Every structure is written in structure tokens, then in C-alpha cells.
Hints:
Layout lengths: L8 E5 L6 E5 L7 H6 L8 E6 L1 H17 L3 E6 L9 H13 L7 E6 L1 H13 L5 E6 L2 H7 L4 E6 L2 E8 L4 E4 L9 H18 L1 H13 L8 H4 L1 H21 L14 H11 L6 H18 L5 H13 L11 H9 L11 E6 L2 E5 L4 H10 L2
Parallel strand pairs: 2-9, 3-4, 3-5, 5-6, 6-9
Antiparallel strand pairs: 1-2, 7-8, 10-11
Helix pairs in contact: 3-4, 5-6, 5-9, 6-7, 6-9, 6-11, 7-12, 10-11, 10-13, 11-12, 11-14
Bound molecules: nicotinamide-adenine-dinucleotide and glycine (GLY).
Amino acid sequence: MTATPTAIHTIRVELSANPYPIVIGEGSLDQLGEQIRAQGIKAGTKVLVVTNPVVNDHYGSQALASLGQGGFEASLLVIEAGEDQKTPATVARIHDAAFERRLERGSLIVALGGGVVGDMAGFAAATWLRGIAVVQVPTTLLAMVDAAIGGKTGVNHPGGKNLIGAFHQPRLVLIDPNTLTTLPEREFRAGMAEVIKYGVIGDPRLFADLETAAARDPVAGLASRAAVGGPLLQTLLQRSAAAKARVVAADEREGGLRAILNYGHTLGHVVEALCGYGTYLHGEAVAIGMVAAGEIAVAMGLWSQVEQDRQRAVIAAAGLPQSWPALDPGSVLECLQGDKKVRDGRVRFVLPTGLGRVEIRDDVDASTISTALAQLG
Ligand code: NAD
Ligand code: GLY
């Protein structure tokens, strides 16, 4: 599948040591080789493209063709899809391929796929020969606006998600919105949760754009790529990527500000863990987590009910869930204590204080949490 490239929009992640571009444009997958060359990576460099079977069927040969045109010596490794494959064993398969294909310090790994592929290929690149370059080519909405940007890489441990990992920034993130035409609608909706997140935590204009688009067609809402359409999709991608780039540039290693990206994730992770991974997609759990955080913020007098209702309306327009599942309250509180974001035994919540403003709080008491969750119905 080839398409004529439309205008390419570039956003820079302005890190002092290793800045890099996020290139967004319809048809840009056909420019993958050229864009990598533009980052100073020479023709003849060995490139290992890591992908999964579904993404390979749709876009593997297109990526390889573009890399060939760029003069790269490219080969493909297809790993299994799915969160349950996000393990050290799968990363070892990528390392084995790197060894067999003689990847050197100057070689490159290209991650072509969703967040699962991106996190694993990124981690393999971070660890092979103590770190080789990686280019992220996200093909899910969630990976385009979140996972591919910012350098968090890793795999799951039986004790929890993403417990094994490394920061390893990509040399380039290349986003081709055309790849979303094949993405299942449920996955598209899950990605919309992260787009809504950026609106609530720091971009009121983005939030207003979402409200306006949802109002334009109350039936279709924001619940599919077709409903969102091309121009709005381009805007959502650009504003979300820019929001993430700003936060990562200000706080690469999550010393402070970057934690605001975890809005909706504290209770979202509880939903994922207690309902069993896979019952809810990550973005679906984040949607429930955002509604829950909003309810806590209202209960603590930090946020108005009117704005919580506006958040709920946009989440509903995106076809995302917002009811708290039937979970034992004691297990919820216990699970919260196991969260990566706990500091000195205190659970940290990102709570909205206005549309486009959040605060990080570690003083939410157990009864406020339980009462707020009961409100979710
Ligand atoms: P995913 O990678 O599992 O992809 C979802 C599904 O979509 C898969 O079945 C995949 O095969 C399919 N798919 C991907 N692109 C497609 C396309 N264009 N057409 C058709 N099918 C396609 O899920 P995801 O939501 O992209 O990523 C979730 C993962 O990302 C989780 O492991 C999460 O921990 C991680 N994550 C990482 C970060 C980070 O900062 N590193 C941030 C958020 C999430
Ligand atoms: N997805 C959260 C982060 O990148 O920090």
C-alpha cells in the first residue's frame, strides 16, 4: 500500500543530550529510509526491523522497501503479538537475531508496531552492545501519542507490568496516520483515552477541540478513526505528540513533572491488574482511572463537578468505559500499595484542578478513594 505523502509536520523532543524529531505525515512510511538518513545514519547501515505478524502483513514490505531505497541493509524479525509476549524471553529472541545478523554498535533497530513491539524492540536496542540506536515507527494510536515518544522501554515481570526496563531515547519517531486505517476500532478508542489525557493535564485547546468534534456528530462521536476524520486526526496527533515532547524534554527521567503523564494510570493499573491483564485494554483502564481521579478531585474540593461532567462526556463520546468494575475494596487498596508510583508508602495521585491543570497529591485517604469509586457505578 503506497500513498502520496501529504505535508509532513515535525515536532522536536528538545533533550539537551539527545534531541530527536517526531515526524508526522500521511504516507510518511514510504519515507522511512530517507528520514533515517536525514538523522545522519549512513547508507549501508544494518537495520533490524522488529514487528509482529499482523503489522508485518500490512506494513512490513512497505517499511523494508523504503529502507532499501534509503540504501540500508535491512532485515525483518517477526515476534508474537500481545501483552503476554512482553517478556525477557521475547527480548532474548531479538538479541539472538541481533547476534545472528551481526548487528554492530553503529547498527539500528526499527520498532514497527504498537506499544508492545516498541517497548521490547526499544529495550533490546538499549541493551544490545550496551545500547544501539532505535527508531520508533508506531502503528497504533496509543503508541503514536504516547508509547513511542519519551524513551521508556521494557518488559513485564510476573510481579507486575514494565518492572524491567531502561530509558533509551529513539533517534527518530515516524508516525504515518495511514497505518491507522487497519487498526481495530477498539484499539483506536483505547488510544483516544491518552489523547483525552493530554487535554485534561495540560492542553485545554485540545480538550475543546475534542468537545467540538464530539458535538458535531453525537452518534459517531470520537469512537472510530472514520468518525474522527483526517484533519482532526492530524491535529490530535500533533497536539498530543507535542504535549508529550514538552513534558519529556522538561523531565526525561521522571524526577517530577513527567509523573503528570500518569493521570488516570494509578487506578487504571488497579483495574488492569485485578480484572486480569487483557480484560480491559490499557487505554480503557486509563479512561476508568481518569473518571475515578476526577471523582476523587471533586470529593477533595479540587475540581468542579461541571468539569468532571465534561470529562465524562468526552470519554463517553470516545466510546470508552467509565464504570468501576466490581472489585473487592480491600484488594483495590492493597493493589494501590504495590504501584510503582508509591513513595514512602504513600500512593501518589495525579488529580485535575481545572481543564488543562493537574496536581500530584499523596494525601488521598482510603475512605475518599472508596467513596469516589462507589460513585462510578
Ligand atoms: P499493542 O502493541 O498490543 O497493539 C494492539 C494490537 O493492535 C495488537 O494486536 C497489534 O498486532 C495490533 N496492531 C498494531 N498496529 C496495527 C495496525 N496498524 N493495524 C492493525 N493492527 C495493528 O498495544 P498498544 O496499545 O499499542 O500498546 C500497549 C503497550 O504499550 C503496553 O505494553 C504498555 O505498557 C505500553 N506503553 C508504553 C509506554 C511507554 O512510554 N513506553 C506508554 C504507554 C503504553
Ligand atoms: N507513559 C508515561 C510516560 O511515558 O512517562
